[in-house]
Amino acid sequence: MDKILHLVANETNGKCYTSFRYCADDEIRIPTLDFDTKGHEISLVVKEYGETDTTLTSSKSLKQLADKILHDSPLFHFFLDGSRRTYKVDDIELNRNVYPVIAGQIGVACCHRKSPSEFKCAEFEHNLVISLPKIANPNGGDASLFFNALAAKINKTKRVEKAEAKFSKVLSYDSKKQDEGKKYEHLGIATIQDEMIETEKRIVSYLSTKNLINPDRYLIKDGSLQYKPMKTGDFRELTKIKSHYKCVVGVSKMFNPELCRDRNDKSNADKIAQLPLYHRTPAYKYKSEIVGSVFFSIWYVRIRSAERSFSPFSGVLKIEKILISEEEHDNGLDSQEIDLITANIINERNPVCYGNDPRWANHLYPIYLTESFIKSKYFSDINFLNLF
Questions:
Q1: String of b and e for 235-271 (b: at least 16 CB within 10 Å)?
Q2: Distance (Å, rounded) from C-alpha 302 to C-alpha 318?
Q3: pLDDT tens digits, one per residue of 177-225
Q4: pTM across the whole model
Q5: DSSP of 278-338, one letter per residue?
Q6: How far apart are the first and last CA of the chain?
Q7: What number of other Cβ atoms are within 10 A of residue 211's Cβ?
Q8: Quick one: pLDDT band at residue 314, thresholds 50, 70, 90?
Q9: Residue, of 246 and 350, whose pLDDT is higher
Q10: Cα distance between residue 19 and residue 92, in whole Å
């Protein structure tokens, strides 16, 4: 069969409707997918210090240290980012119910800085996926066998072969009746998001196992490290793989400042907004409700002046590091390590991608390069949708 959707309908005993196709990222706002800004960020109530210096009660300037190490070998050598584009490609009737067929492009890249002006791609995965309802498996047996076989058949269609494309997986989402307000589109997109996160974890674990990231060669991961547990996958629980994140720092460009609360459960948003340039907040110990028994040290730093930005939080980054050892769990992260991490992040702020990205004030340039590299490898929306 020439068309993917015809093949899917035939293999699942379903009927496709030739519905309008569109990029779901442009049409649907999903409240539970973006770990930085949508839903998964839980209130950070300040109850314990996340660093060894418990005398630090106000912001601390790292400008002097940043200038001192400016010409030293940088702490960060690797930069990881994940991205996905999702699409509603059709509706399919199965057992008299109609479900959306969701497809996506997943890109995850890790760039390696070999010299101040030379960046190379250390790891890159560009995966095409389709997400179908679980009921699409007509056999009622091992769903993974059926969906893997379906992916193999899809890759043999003429359009896919001619485009030199390859679908890595056919994913599945819950096909049971959902509560009001919960859409099947959201569930399908969530499976693609989870697949992207699984790829990020796999790359970090590989780099750690090969000792490519170590105390002298850290990795910045774009976004939060607060990965929620997943039902499937080799890296489904952060508690079991956290040792690979010893030299990994999560940096979030966007966050909800209202979720950071003090001991009296009052907002700390004003303190974050008023951070002086190149100052960091004290680090606080935090246990995420969505991750499980994993503790984090979290702090904020201002890398650009708010005077030239569009909001008081532009130029502020949220930094996370997982507390690995028992000593870190009991006493927090070494304050000297926090200072060194923060000073290096301050030095990563230039050059600036001003004009190329509306988030320029919060961007670290190596992350911007990594993100741009991923997007350059995507099929255009038109070409991707034409595969179906």
A1: bbbbeebbebbbbbbbbbbebbbeebbeeeeeebbeb
A2: 9
A3: 777 778 899 999 999 999 999 999 999 999 999 999 999 999 999 999 8
A4: 0.88
A5: TEEPPPEEEE-TTT-S-EEEEEEEE-S-GGGSSSTTTTEEEEEEE--SHHHHHH-B-HHHH
A6: 11
A7: 9
A8: confident
A9: 246
A10: 9
